[in-house]
Design brief:
The protein contains 5 helices and 10 strands. It has 246 residues and is an alpha+beta fold. It folds into 2 domains: 94 residues, Pseudouridine synthase I, catalytic domain, N-terminal subdomain (Alpha-Beta Plaits), CATH 3.30.70; 140 residues, Alpha-Beta Plaits. Strands 1, 2, 3, 4, 5, 6, 7, 8, 9 and 10 form a 10-stranded mixed sheet that branches. The longest helix is centred in the last third of the chain and has 13 residues. The protein starts with a strand and ends with a strand.
C-alpha cells in the first residue's frame, strides 16, 4: 500500500531534506521512524523535492510503501510519536500504487519571508531574513510580473544545478506586506536548485534600486547567472504547498 503524506519541518537543525552520510536530514529522520514502526525493515521515502540546509517546509509531500494496515487518520499520531520535535506529519492518505510525490506534482508554492524591522529579532532569526533597508515594493511587484510565464531560468539557478532542462513556468508572484514582514509568494510548475533564493535576491536588488524592473527580460534571455542578484539566505524560505492532478 502506498501512502501520501504532508510533512512540515523546521529546517534550522537539518543539513537539508535528502539523506547525506553522517549528517542529520529530514529524510533520514522520517525513514528512521518508519523503520521502528516496521520492526526494523528499511522503508524508503520519496519527496516532492529536496530542500537545502536551513530551509523550512509547511507542506512537503512524501510517499512511501507499507505493509502495515494502519488507518490513514492514525498515521500522524503513530509517526509523530517517533519523530523529533522539528518534524511533524500533518496528514496521510492512501494513494494510487503508481503515485509519485515528485514526478506527479503539477504546482508548487514557495514563500520567502523578510523581516524589515530596524533591529534583528532574536526569536525570528531562523525563520525570516532580516533586511532593514528601504524597499520599493511596487518596483518589486512590477519585476515579479515580468517573471511570469514559461522561460529558461538558467540565470536564476545555481551552477550546481543538476537538471539540464532549465525551462520552468511561474504561474503567479505576490509581494504581501504584513506589518514589518514582507513575504514573496512564488507559484510555479517547479523550481531549479536555489531558484527561489536567487529570484528573491534579484527582487531585493530591484527594490533597493540597484536594478530596474525592466531588466528582468534581458536577464532571463542572457541565461547568465552572473547577471541576476545574490542568493538570499536559506532561513527565509519555505516550501509552502504542492499540488497534484486529482
Amino acid at each position: 500500500m502506498r501512502m501520501k503524506c504532508i510533512v512540515s519541518y523546521d529546517g534550522t537543525g537539518f543539513s537539508g531534506y535528502q539523506v547525506q552520510p553522517g549528517k542529520r536530514t529530514v529524510q533520514s529522520e522520517l525513514e528512521k521512524a518508519l523503520a521502528v514502526l516496521h520492526k526494523g525493515k528499511e522503508i524508503k521515502v520519496a519527496a516532492s523535492g529536496r530542500t537545502d540546509a536551513g530551509v523550512h517546509a509547511r507542506g512537503q509531500v512524501i510517499h512511501f510503501d507499507t505493509s502495515l494496515s494502519i488507518p490513514s487518520d492514525r498515521w500522524p499520531r503513530a509517526l509523530n510519536s517517533l519523530l523529533p520535535d522539528d518534524v511533524v506529519l500533518l496528514s496521510a492518505e492512501q494513494a494510487a500504487d503508481d503515485f509519485h510525490a515528485r514526478y506527479h506534482a503539477v504546482k508548487k508554492e514557495y514563500r520567502y519571508v523578510i523581516s524589515r524591522e530596524m533591529l534583528p529579532d532574536v526569536f525570528t532569526r531562523n525563520f525570516a531574513y532580516h533586511y532593514p533597508y528601504h524597499l520599493d515594493v511596487e518596483a518589486i511587484r512590477l519585476a515579479g510580473e515580468k517573471l511570469l510565464g514559461t522561460h529558461d531560468f538558467t540565470s536564476f539557478c545555481s551552477a550546481r544545478t543538476e537538471s539540464e532542462d532549465r525551462i520552468r513556468t511561474i504561474f503567479s508572484f505576490e509581494a504581501v506586506e504584513d506589518g514589518s514582514l514582507l513575504t514573496f509568494r512564488f507559484a510555479g510548475s517547479g523550481f531549479l536548485y536555489n531558484m527561489v533564493r536567487i529570484l528573491t535576491g534579484t527582487l531585493l536588488e530591484i527594490g533597493s534600486g540597484a536594478k530596474r524592473p525592466d531588466e528582468i527580460p534581458a536577464i532571463i534571455e542572457a541565461k547568465n547567472r552572473g547577471l541576476a542578484g545574490k542568493t538570499a539566505p536559506a532561513q527565509g524560505l519555505y516550501l509552502w504547498s504542492v499540488e497534484y492532478d486529482n
